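Deliverable D5.2: sample structural annotation.
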Amino acid sequence: MRSRLPLIVALLLSLGLALFALEPTWHEPGRWMVGNWYHPDCLSNHWLLVWVAEQLAGGQGLVHNDRYYWPVGDYPVLAGNGAEGVLYLPFHLALGWPAGCSTTPCWC
């Protein structure tokens, strides 16, 4: 047990600091979105999470998205960052947007 004690303490401290830093979001998760907005691609990545989740929920394809990088479109799932939408799907179905994005372990 002594060898696991530092790990348990570190996990509890990390969880406590995360809850402290994100305090407004867990009181009103539908009002806040957590993310790193310093890079302009982050906003489009969050949009892409929702697009992939809605495509999957509607039984539609993920290969080409003509609205992403309009007017030419893109293949976001093949490019890599669209695959995170698969992990985001349960959060989107349970919490919707933006709360689902804030609780997803997928970040820009």
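Annotation notes: Residues 1-30 form one domain. The radius of gyration is 17 Å.
The annotation will be released with the project's public dataset once the embargo ends.
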